Amino acid sequence: MIVTTLEESARYHVLGENVKKALEWLKENDIRKMEDGRYALDGTVLSKTSLLDMNAKEKQGVFILIQRYTTRSIDDCWFEGHKKFIDIHYVAEGMEYFCYTPLARAGKPVTEYDEVEDDFLYNRDYETGVLMKAGDVVIVYPEDVHMPQRRALVPSDVVKACIKIVI
After folding, report:
1. Type and span of the H or E element at 167
2. What is the distance of C-alpha 105 from the center of its chain?
3. CA 29: distance to chain centroid?
4. What are the φ/ψ torsions at residue 75 (nearest 5 degrees)?
5. How many CB atoms lie within 10 A of CB 89?
6. Which H or E run includes 67?
7. What is the number of helices (H) and of strands (E) in the chain?
8. What pTM does this model have?
9. For the segment 123-141, what is each residue's pLDDT rounded down to a tens digit?
């Protein structure tokens, strides 16, 4: 897991061309002015819902999920892990507690692999938590089991981008 700010994120361009494109896209676009949904890096709306089939996701290579939500208690959140995508989480407004556990210590998934959403869900206490505020970025790889959307002390209204990059 990599934790940084959008302002300092250029040092992570070395992680690959798609990571570089995604971080640059975040710098050039104000996601607070965009509607919720899934977008291509060129701004094309891929879906107004939260779902795209896996073939569409893999063909796209990189896509952005814009979402608004109110953070939740730990009892209403979940740990997730992925097989096919890197996630770049960026908070544009609000704050959330972003929790992490290495895959090697996450235990057995409590769900079967979901091909459409590219995820397993886990029940586990976290090992590390990061308070994400506006401007913060977290990059997670398939070996990084993570829990987004958790409230810190009080619920917070969040505007966030989760950029998915196929590996």
Report:
1. none
2. 20
3. 17
4. -70, -20
5. 22
6. strand 62-70
7. 2, 12
8. 0.90
9. 877 789 999 999 999 999 9
